[in-house]
Amino acid sequence: MELQVEIKGGAMLVRLAGEIDLAVADTLRTSLEEELDRNPGVRNIVINLGGVRYIDSSGLGVLLGRYRRISGDGGRMFIVGASPQVRRIVEMSGLLNIMQEFPSEADALNHAG
Amino acid sequence: MELQVEIKGGAMLVRLAGEIDLAVADTLRTSLEEELDRNPGVRNIVINLGGVRYIDSSGLGVLLGRYRRISGDGGRMFIVGASPQVRRIVEMSGLLNIMQEFPSEADALNHAG
Amino acid sequence: MEPVNRMRVEFTSLPANVAFARVAAAAFASQLDFTLNDLEEIKVAVSEAVTNAIVHGYENSAGGTVVLAVEIRKNTLKIVVEDTGKGIEDMEKALQPAYSTDPERMGLGFAFMQSFSDSLKVESKPNAGTRVTMTKVCARKASSPAGR
Amino acid sequence: MEPVNRMRVEFTSLPANVAFARVAAAAFASQLDFTLNDLEEIKVAVSEAVTNAIVHGYENSAGGTVVLAVEIRKNTLKIVVEDTGKGIEDMEKALQPAYSTDPERMGLGFAFMQSFSDSLKVESKPNAGTRVTMTKVCARKASSPAGR
Ligand SMILES: Nc1ncnc2c1ncn2[C@@H]1O[C@H](COP(=O)(O)OP(=O)(O)O)[C@@H](O)[C@H]1O
Ligand SMILES: Nc1ncnc2c1ncn2[C@@H]1O[C@H](COP(=O)(O)OP(=O)(O)O)[C@@H](O)[C@H]1O
């Protein structure tokens, strides 16, 4: 797994790559929690899944958990860049019902920033 | 495995692709023997390994066996297009001592045709 | 005699082995002429079952052994994932989508296994273990066993 | 207690399973930080040992079972390939490069296994079977078990 985080105004941009499964779920969860703790101004999160080759319910659970944290304060989560296979898993999980999808990082940041 | 055979004058051009191991050794051996039976004018063989992602001693044994058949009549075998990893296996097997390597199909056919 | 091709792998209940298990299952399954999409589905289904064995069956301890058995019979793939961990108390609840005994998880493991296989069977006994059996039929005609 | 990660896979002695075995071994090995070149070498070494089990041990019959066991202990990979087939009559000859009891083969299986591992041990008993044990040390520091 590779993880890149950038703070863009009121939004946190998270670029994920590699395989997101049980082996990396704890690391990913802890990293995102720490970033949110460090950046109390963050309201929305944009997740760029462009580099993700594989994801399953362990990885999606980490995203859902962070969504729950920010949505308490009215924050939203946006998704960009999912490959067709990754998108299918995200869709089946129901996450697309609560997280809006955008065609590009810029579009998502426009809504989130 | 994928196999393409073309007769070019006195030479047989064999293009191989995929993984060449025990699972395909019999099929490859039989195909090459049949081509040699059908084309008695063939003296030399050019093997293009450009598409080969994997080869081991089962695959190299098939090449060596065909070399033995044609070398009885003075025929030679030429190799082109091996990736660095495939080339290393071919070299370690000693086949490069008896089969000349060329940078391109055209070069090899110039010598073989 | 009907020819059957089988593999059975046992491995330590470590999170890093989830990826190993799905790659092994897909590599074996690829002897049938599955589409890339089918192979992706097989990977997710196996990952979910193996993850459950590690997370729920063995409660994240690395002291357990997970078994993954895969069988090819004609054009049908059969996948079994087994643990000898704590077992499932309430099977009916466990199989409901979005139900999880772990607040950090989504409760979608069985839902994914069901969506991505043609049949799913779950057998479990508290304090004895859990066995998940899935089958998936390959729609395209199988190539000969040696034909790849 | 030293943490050890293990897998052990049994499979039918079919030629199509040689590819499965090397992919499974490499997928497991990739938990250490091996180079791509190392992983290629592991694939060839495993393929040669499994091929021998099928071709020589079981004399190309599909009725046998091949065992591949892989273990990670610190930065060392240990690979065992085992069959319960016909065994090796003359070990000294068998290990010589270019020696083969089969005229269609090159006699390079053991030579490749030796070149591509840090240690090679062959144990065999006629009519009982053969066990090949190889180790390979990962030069780069191992990443944490969960760290991939
Ligand atoms: N191998 C297992 N051993 C023990 N309990 C299990 C096992 N697999 C599933 N369960 C139980 O079934 C529930 C639902 O499983 P699942 O649908 O995969 O969701 P999740 O893994 O997200 O909790 C789990 O929360 C757990 O209580
Ligand atoms: N698993 C095995 N069971 C029985 N005999 C074996 C086994 N592995 C190797 N041998 C014997 O050792 C010889 C040399 O093996 P190897 O170097 O791999 O060359 P090759 O497989 O090309 O014959 C074989 O020809 C065979 O007689």
What keywords describe this structure?
heterotetramer; A: alpha/beta; Transcription Regulator spoIIAA; five-stranded mixed β-sheet; 5 strands; globular; C: Heat Shock Protein 90; 4 helices; binds adenosine-5'-diphosphate
Walk me through the structure.
- The complex is a heterotetramer, with 2 copies of chain A (113 residues) and 2 copies of chain C (148 residues).
- Chain A is α/β, with parallel strands linked by helices and 113 residues long.
- Chain A has a single domain (2-112), classed as STAS domain (Transcription Regulator spoIIAA).
- Helix content of chain A is 47%, strand content 32%.
- Chain A contains 5 helices and 5 strands, in the order ββαβαβααβα.
- Chain A has a 5-stranded mixed β-sheet with strand order 1-2-3-4-5, sandwiched between helices.
- In chain A, β2, α1 (22-38) and β3 (44-55) form a beta-alpha-beta unit.
- In chain A, α1 (22-38) runs parallel beside α2 (57-71).
- The longest helix of chain A is centred in the first third of the chain and has 17 residues, at 22-38.
- Residues 144-148 of chain C have low confidence and may be disordered.
- Chain C has one domain (4-147): Histidine kinase-like ATPase, C-terminal domain (Heat Shock Protein 90).
- Chain C is α+β, with helices and mostly antiparallel strands and 148 residues long.
- Chain C has a 5-stranded antiparallel β-sheet, with helices on one face.
- In chain C, β2 and β3 (76-83) form a beta hairpin.
- Chain C contains 4 helices and 5 strands.
- The A-C interface holds A 19, 21-23, 25, 29, 54, 56-58, 60-61, 64-65, 85, 89, 92-93 and C 15-16, 18-19, 37, 40, 43-44, 47-48, 51, 54-55, 104-106, 108-109, 111-112, 115.
- The structure holds adenosine-5'-diphosphate (ADP) (2 copies).
- Residues 48, 52-53, 56-57, 83, 85-88, 94, 99-102, 105-110, 130 of chain D line the site of one adenosine-5'-diphosphate.
